[in-house]
Each structure stands twice: as structure tokens, then as C-alpha cells.
Amino acid sequence: MQWPPPWRRSPLLSASPPPGPVKGFLRPVRMSEAARLYHYVTPAESAMEGRWQTRPSLRPASPTNAPAHRQPPLANVCQQNYGAPQDPVEPAGLRSASHVTGSSLGKAEVACGSRRRWAELVPESSWSPAVGASKMKVKMLSRNPDNYVRETKLDLQRVPRNYDPTLHPFEVPREYVRALNATKLERVFAKPFLASLDGHRDGVNCLAKHPKNLATVLSGACDGEVRIWNLTQRNCIRTIQAHEGFVRGVCTRFCGTSFFTVGDDKTVKQWKMDGPGYGEEEEPLHTILGKTVYTGIDHHWKEAVFATCGQQVDIWDEQRTNPICSMTWGFDSISSVKFNPVETFLLGSCASDRNIVLYDMRQATPLKKVILDMRTNTICWNPMEAFIFTAANEDYNLYTFDMRALDTPVMVHMDHVSAVLDVDYSPTGKEFVSASFDKSIRIFPVDKSRSRYVPTSKPKTTHYSLRYQNVYFQLTSREKAAKDYNQKLKEKFQHYPHIKRIARHRHLPKSIYSQIQEQRIMKEARRRKEVNRIKHSKPGSVPIVSEKKKHIVAVVK
Amino acid sequence: MNVNQVAESLLALSQQEELVDLPKNCPLSENEDDGDSDGERKHQKLLEAISSLDGKNRRKLAERSEASLKVSEFNVSSEGSGEKLVLADLLELVKTSSSLATVKKQLNRVKSRKVVELPLNKEKIEQIHREVAFGKTSGVLSKWDPIVLKNQQAEQLAFPLGKEQPAIAPIEHALSGWKARTPLEQEIFNLLHKNKRPVTDPLLTPMEKASLRAMSLEEAKMHRAELQRARALQSYYEAKARREKKIKSKKYHKVVKKGKARKASKELEQLQKVNPTVALEELEKFENARMMERMSLKHQNSGKWAKSKAIMAKYDLEARQAMQEQLAKNKELTQKFQVASEIEEEKGCTEEVEELLVPHVVNEVQMNVDGLNPWMLRNCTSDTREAATQEDPEQLPEPATHEVSESEGEERPVAEEEILLRDFEERRSLRKRSELNQDAEPAGIQETKDSSCQDVLSELRALSQKLKENHQSRKQKASSEGTVPRVQREEPAPEEAAPLLLQRPERVQTLEELEELGKEDCFQNKEIPRPVLEGQQSERTPNNRPDAPKEKKEKEQLIDLQNLLTTQSPSVRSLAVPTTIEELEDEEERDQRQMIKEAFAGDDVIRNFLKEKREAVEASKPKDVDLTLPGWGEWGGVGLKPSTKKRRRFLKAPEGPPRKDKNLPNVFISEKRNIHVAAHQVQVLPYPFTHHRQFERTIQTPVGSTWNTQRAFQKLTTPKVVTKPGHIIKPIKAEDVELK
Fold it and tell me: Checking CA distances to A108, which of A71, B137, B356, B585 falls within 20 to 30 Å?
């Protein structure tokens, strides 16, 4: 006897799973954990501390979408003023009232109203009859209202203050404690994970940002599906079965009206960004059939030109089916190609024979090639500094190069404990985010070799691709002042051991933690060996190679 | 290079000893280098000229002047004309012959002319190309250097860099490329077009525009005023309705409802006069309503409210009345409406009806109730009876008799019941008064409540008492007889109202017990002091009561057990551990000590050390500080000093923790060092600073607004990077930074 009996078996259980992509009422099954997108928030310069738990307001910036001023500001969820001094403009007795109103203007109104009321309640004349009756001279505290009442509510509050340092002692200890609190709170509220965008049925292989809309993100999966997401609503706007096999690359056109995809089926397809109209079928605007598999694609930042990579770097005109020019240097598969966002005729690519090659589109030649110890997976150009790019390497490091001097990287960024898979610059060009095979992502300042930040939270999946998108929070002026002050304090006292320790403390997954320990030991052993070799050999016979130069094999002109 | 080549060729000739003339050879070599056909021709001419100069050996030799694939075998003349040529002659000729000046010149010319090198291999060329391109690109890129440097050193960077104008496209532009595609859209647009609504310009229709143009200012004002008035009136009306809706008085609502009904009936009558067809329709409506009523369970005394009322009906006149009303209503609603013919018959009565101020329909119903349909009445009374039997069987005989006797009219049974109820109440009030006098002390809380509440309370108490009695009697009877019919048991209840008074002391006892229980059991005391407020609870209490003493006993037992436990605590005996002191002092050791003593006889190290330690300990002790504040806790002022008592209290410094070397006479541990401070002190000068004083100064200048003016505070805390919310930061452009 079988249980449950056939009449009680649910149709889902009894029916054999249909072949191919599941449609209809069945819920799509997630194949792997990596089949979703994770949306993080970072304590970037734009974001604030102490507000990680609140819902951010991601605003589309394009004028066609809702303009920023129409949206109501977020409710003040967290009005604490961490360690920061109160606004001196605000009178002490009315603090609670100002908390209610929130905005500086409203605050002023509350303060003003109460003052006036006080003046009405205790007019000097009302006292006089009683005084006269008793014939006693009473000295009263009287103030001239001109000294403290504003003429209009738009005036600044006149607050008598005495900045005599003897009245405000212990500046350093007090600020030290404030800095300590600010540092601790930063750690407490560092909850960067915002949301995961579920929907892909296979691993997500590539990502692209919308150039005109902050809320839109495109993703290509390993089953050939491309999805367009809305980050504000956290849902999928559109799903396209773009290719057979992997989607190897996605890139948007600079105007944001269409996007390009390349896949394992040797095709390049151009799609409209908006969905198909009524009665139209979901099909690409153009399809280019190639001879070889394309592994990456990037669009020019100003012109109707895009570049693909595979066995060679091809530059295409959007209107033609043959490349304008194809550039090769050596014969190896090129894994990614990127246009320089500033000097738009420049391209960079990295191939699997461990090299990074730079190209000039105008002169149709490669410019220079640098060979590293290990293979580079991706490069990304700095959007604010035309000649700087960062390469994500398999040897756990990232290298920031000045393209005019490739023999020495400007900075070696080392914190990952496994191959670095992708890198993307922040729009301000001050830092970049990198994803690694060790299932972590890290944020590096451009000029620091160590990561500033590693978001640690639940999703422990390998991030194959990632993009840096600024997220904005609504802050009141007081919150902003407190944030800036806290930031300054943290900077000021950053060298103090206690504060340094707290600021550097991270809760890492055990695997990463143990790997870091292991690699530290390995590195120390290597260093010791080198030191010993230098010590025990003839002076000058063993050359001392700096860490920056160590990983560069050669620069080919 | 050319010369070399010539020389080489000459050497080769000499070695092979071939009879080839130099002048013949010369062009050959030249031809190799320079494939110019013009030059060849010139050479040919030159050679002829040379040969003509030399008159002696003028022999026309078939000669090959250029390397060609087709070489005729007849023209080959490497052997010459058979004369032997000696190298020495040749050399002599070169030296002496003046005719060779031209050749020399040519040679010179050849020497001076630059020769294009061999083309390089492809890789080399590509490399060169790359290098050149790289150089150019580097040049282009280096124009960014100052900007990058400036941005890196900037105090503050505000993003986005360029001033972008938010281009808000007008809706016409957005709509220009848009077409209605879906059926819905098309329908909407069709409608819009049909009504000449604006599609692109969303302002006004032509009609509206025209009307706008047509209306004068005064008119508009009047129109507006009208509208305002209407709005105001509406708001008043709404406010009134809201106010009326809020009124809680049932009477009021009843009156309103009745008024409405009356109005409706009046209208109906009028309609019948004026427009009989409409009136018929109205009547149909009534009929429908009746059908609905018959179908529904409303007013059938089967709802929750009705059931509760049925329970209370026995004691409460109002409840009974309410039930009756309910039933009457049901009857009224289910009553078949009199057809117009009847009404027409009773036309004469209408005035009377109006005087009575009772709706026509109601009257009819009344009439029906009285005379026309006795079965209906019967039905509804039986309904009530059934409900009553379900709830309290004791009432069964009474209403039945009433019913049988007073089936003719409704008023009489009600009156009788009322009389009965009044009797009950009187008795209750009497009882209550007597109770109040005697129960004043135990029921202190209950006194505070108003009389009505007391009434209910006493009633319920009586009930509970009855129940208890029943319980007891049942117990007694259970031992003797076994089962007792329920009706018998409960029948005497109304008659026993008087004897209840006599049983009061017992009840008081029980109450006291309950209170005691409450004191003991903190869990139950919340319910028990005022259990009588609700009937259920009061019923429950007697059930609980017999258990109470048991519980008390148990409690006591528990406490006893605890006492036992505490007394039986085991006594701990301290074991005196025998300590054996080994007093083994060898003589040798003693000798050594003696020796050391003798050696250091002059300086008393130990004493010095002890002295030093004592001094250090003294120094490290916290000093007394006078912390007295004049005026606190006593009078203060000029010439007044704080009392010695207070001074003594605040003068003494608090004792610190005991020293670590307190019990170590030979050790002196300095306690000046505080390890906890180390975490808050910077040990090494941090990177950008070059001198420790520099660092200290930066630390000592405060940033906060407590120490700085608002402006200074803002300046000090400006962030390095400022971003505008909701703006896309685009990559840097040459236009943004004014680069050409």
C-alpha cells in the first residue's frame, strides 16, 4: 500500500516534473544560491551611519521618472544624536518639540511660539497691582525681549553663548569618548545587506547598470536568461530568454534605450530597454551571428560603437554586421574588454595568458601589454582619473595601474583569500568594490592597499559579477551635521589603539578567517626565507624586489 | 657601402680571373642597387660614350647589362674575345686612365646617395607602431595630470561635477512617438477624440476654453459664491447627520424611526390617491420586505441577544418586554400587507389614524394580533415558552398556566409578571438592607459601589446561596436516596426567598473563609474578594470552597516540610589540618648567613629598602582633599564656616585598593603604571606627522560645536566627498573641468 492514497496525493507530487523551463503555476525552483542578486549598502561617503536598518530611498534620477522633490522625505526613524552635541541653535528646553517636527524650520517655529506664550503669561504689568498693594519693593528678573526674540521666524535664533574654554573643560577626553562611541555605533549599525533579488533559475553570470536610471539593473544568468530589475521596488521588471547557454556579457547603451548581450551561442543581440509594446513579440532589435564565442562586451561611452572580445577584440558599429576593426596581439582567449569612460577611445582587455592589453580605437592598434604572475579576470577603469585602472587578479590581489607606467602598479590591494573575480569602481572614483571566489566582497579605497570594508552577512555565495551603485538616504540637517562630526572625530582619533581595534574589527565567516590566518603564516614564512637568503649571501647578490614589482613579469611594448 | 661593394666585386673577379671589364661590371652593380630603368638607359649611353673614347679596342661585345630571367645563350660572352687579361694591366688602367674620372664621379655620387634599408619584419613594424601610438596616447592622457592632482588634494569634492540641467520634457514630446495599441487604450482615445478632449495638450477642451472666454467676471463670482454656499450647506448637513448618528439614546432613534415610518405611510396613502400604479409598486416593495423577513432569522428570538434576554426574562421585566417587542416586530413585519382595497375601505379612518400618530401599518398589525389571526399569536408565545423551558425548567409551569388562562390578551400576563417581579424586587431590597447592616465589615469593598450594583450583587449572592444549598442537600440526599429529580430540587427556590434571610450567618462565614483563602492563596485572591459581580463566578465559588480548606492544609504541610528542611541543615565541621612545620636548618646555611652579615655589616640594605618602600607607599597613598562645599546642608555666607563634622566627612580621601606588595616584605611593586591606559595612548607617531608636538596639537584642537562657533564647526567638519542624492555621477568630462 502506498501512502498517501492516490486520491489524496496532490497534483504537484504526483505529476512528473515537466521538462525544460517550468512555467505556469509551479514556483520556479532556485538551482543554486548564487542564482540571485544581492543588494548591499555600503557605508560609502553617500550613506550614513546609524541608519542601516532603515529602508533606503533609492531614487531614480532621470527626469522622466519621478523627480526627487516630489517624494515625501522618509520618516525620522532614528533620531538619536550619537555622541554629537546638540544643535546650539536649539534651546535646551524645547528639545522634545524639535524632535517632533524634525525640520529646522519647524523647530524654529516651535521655539518661537513657546517664547511668546511665556511672555503673555508673565507680563510685568500683571504683577504690579499686588506689588503696589503690599508696598514692598521686589526686585524682579527682567529681560529685554529685543535681546532674544527674533523679528521674523526666518531669522537665526540668537543664542547667547560663552566660548570661554574654562567653562568647557576636558575637550580632548570628551571628544575621545565621542569618537569611541561613533566608532562603536558604526560597527553596530553596519548592516549592509539590503535585499536579495530572487528569480533567476541559474547562477547569475554578469551584471550591468543602467546609465540613466539608478534603480535599474540588468543581470544575465547561466541559462541564457536576462532579467531587468528595479532596485527600489526590489522586483523583476522584465525577463528575456536571450541566449542558449550562458549569457557571457551584458552592457547598456550610453543613452539607456537599449542594451547588448553576448552569449555562448556566438551571437551578439541588441534589445530594447522598454518592454515590447502591445501585440509585439519579445525579440532583439539586431542579432549578429559571429564565428567564435564572444566572452565579453562593452559599449562606447559616447558613440554608437561597441567592443566584443573572444579570440580577438572586435570593434563594431551598431549598424553593421561586420566589425570595424579587430585587434589581436598573440593568440589567446580574451576574457573581458572595457572602454575607458573618460578618454573614450581607449580600451583595456585581459586575456587568459596572464596579460593585460591596452588598445587605441582611433589608431586601431594595441598600445602595450603587461604580463602578470597570474591571469587577470577583469579590469575596470577609474571614472574620474583617465589613466588609472584596476585589475582583478587570480593571485588574490588587485592591481591599480597607471597605464603610462605599467611596470610598477600604483597600488597592490591585498585582502582577498581567493581569486578575485570582478571589480567595479564607485562613480566618485574614490573606491572600488571587488568580488572574490572566497565568497566575500570587499571595498577598497583607491589609495589603500587594505580593504576598508567587508560586508558580512548571510549570503555566502560566490559573487561572479558585481556593480557599484550609490545608495542615498534622506538626512535631516541635524543628522547630517552629526554624521559629519562623527566622521571627523573618527578620523581625528583613528590612531588611538582602542579605536583602531574597534574600527578594524570584523566578523568574518570562519572559512575566510582561517584562510587569512593560514596565508599570513605562509607570507611570513616566505618573508623570513627571503630575509635569511639576503642575510647569508654576498651583499648585493640577491636583489631586493619590492612587493609592487614582484608580481609583474614583463611589460611588452 | 657602395664602394665596398664595388671593391668586393673586383676582388671576386680577380680571384676567378674572369675576363670581364670593369666598365662592364660597374653598371651591373649599380643595376642591382638601383632598378631604375631611366638610370639604366643613361648608363648604357654612358658606357657607349666611354667605349667611343677609347679608340683602340672598339669591339662590340654582346653583353648582358641586367639580370634577367631570359638570358640568351648566344649573347653570353664571359670568355671575351680570346685575349688574356692580366690583373696587373687592369690595375694599371685604373690608376692611370684619365677616362675613368667620370666613373669616379659616378662612384662618388653613388656613395653620397642614401639607400633605403631593407623592410623590417612585421613584428618589428607593429612594435614600432605600438610604441608611437602609446607615446601619442600618453601625451593625450597627461593633460589630465593636473586635474587628477587637484582632485586628490581638494578639501572637498562635490559630485556630480558638471552642472546638469534637469530637462523636463513636455508631455507633447513624450506623446509624439506614442500610439494607442491595446484595445483599452484605443477605446479611451476614441472616446477622447469623440468628445473632442485634448489628447496632447492636457489643459482645456475647446468647450471649456469657449466657456471660459464666455463667462464674465461677475458671473464667475456669482457662480463661485453659489458653489461655496452649496458646499457650506452640504457640510452643515453632513455635520448634522454625523451628530445625529452619534446620539446614543435608543429612544431618540426609535422616535426617529417611527417618524420615518409614519412619513412613509403617509406618502403611500397620498400616492394611492394621486398615482395608484406607483403606490402598487411601493406596496410590492413592502411585500418584498415581508418575504425577506419571513426568510430571515431576524426577530425570531433565536439570536445571541435574544437567548441572553430569554435567560434574564424570568427576573427582568425589561428583558421580557424587549423579547415581546421583538416578537411583535416580527409579527408586524411578517404580516401580510393589506391590499389597497382594504385601505380604500377604511378611508374614513385615516384622520383618526393621523390623530393617533401611529403608523397605519402598525395599527393594522395590532388589530390582526388581537382578532384576526390568533394562531400567529399562539405561535410566538409558544416560541417564548420553548426558549424559557430550555433555559430554566423551573419556570415551565408558571408561564404555561398564564398562557392557558390569558390567551385572549397580551396585557394581562405581562401585568401579572410585573407584579411578581416587583414582589421579588421588594424582597431583594429588604434582604439587601439587612445584609448591608451586618455585612458591612467583611464586604468593605462592596460598600463603595452604588445601590444598583448592590442590588445585583445581593441577588446573585442569593442565587449562589441557593445553589450551595442545593448542592448540600443533594449530597445529603445522595447518601440516602441516590438521584433526585431536578425539578423537585429547584422548585422551592422562589419560596425559599424568606428563609434565606435566616441562613445569612452561615454565608458570612463562607465569605470570611473565602477571604482567608484569598489571603493565603495569592493566585486566587484576585477573583475571590469580588466574585459576586458575575453570576458564573459566584456559582463557581461554592464549588471552590470545599476545596479551600484542603488547600490550606496542604500549604501548611508544605511549610512544615520546609521548616523541617531548614532545621535539618547539615552541620559542617571544620577539619583542623595538621600542619607539620619542617624546621630543618643546617648549620652550613647558618654559617653562610653569618658570613654575608659580616660582609655587609656596614650598609644596612634591608633597612634601607624597607624605608624606601615605606616612603613610596606613603607617597602613593591618596592625599586628603577638602571637598566641603560651604552652604550645602547648612547655612552659608560671609563669616560662616562649614562645620567640623561636615569637613571631616568630606576631607578624607577614599581608601584605594590594597597594595599588591602588602604581604611581601621583600618586594616592592610599583603601582604607578596603569595597564588599562595603554589602550588609550598612542605609542608610535602616526604616519603623516613628523613631530609628536604636531600630532598633539591636532588632537588638542577640539572640533565639536561645544568649543567652536557654528560656522567654524561647519568648516571643520566638512566631508571630503559630497554627493547629491538621486543624481547620477557621470565619469569626468573635459568640459566639466574646463579642459580644452
Answer: A71
